[in-house]
Amino acid sequence: MDNSTLTERGQVSVPAALRKSMKLRPGQKLVWLRISDREMRVSVETQAVPGPLGVLGYARKLRGGAARRTARWMQELRAGEK
């Protein structure tokens, strides 16, 4: 059984053997659930896979410059057809 000590600031370290076996990485969220007055459960929060709407606005970061309206895009596309 692995043990941890609670610091004065309320921090706890996850033992290295557990971190390695569970493949925990810095920045991952842990969820604490109180079971009773003397027991709690800690689980790793699963990261939600973004759906199709999760990528909206992402292209703007790649595109750079000022945003263009659809009419402007169509105008540029049609100009290339000539």
Summarize the structure.
It contains 3 helices and 2 strands, in the order αββαα.
Tell me what the structure shows.
Helix content is 29%, strand content 16%. It is an alpha+beta fold and 82 residues long. The chain has a domain at 57-81. The model has no long low-confidence stretch (mean pLDDT 84).
Topology:
Blueprint: H1 16-21, E1 30-36, E2 39-44, H2 58-63, H3 70-81
Antiparallel strand pairs: 1-2
- From the alpha-carbon coordinates, what is the Rg to the nearest angstrom? 24 Å
Distance between the termini: 74 Å
**How confident is the prediction overall: mean pLDDT?**
84
> How many E strands?
2
- Globally, the shape reads rod-shaped
Helix segment tally = 3
String of helices and strands: HEEHH
Strand arrangement in the largest pleated sheet: 1-2
State the low-pLDDT regions, or none. Answer: none
Main sheet? Answer: 2 strands, antiparallel
What share of the residues does DSSP label as strand, in percent? Answer: 15-25%
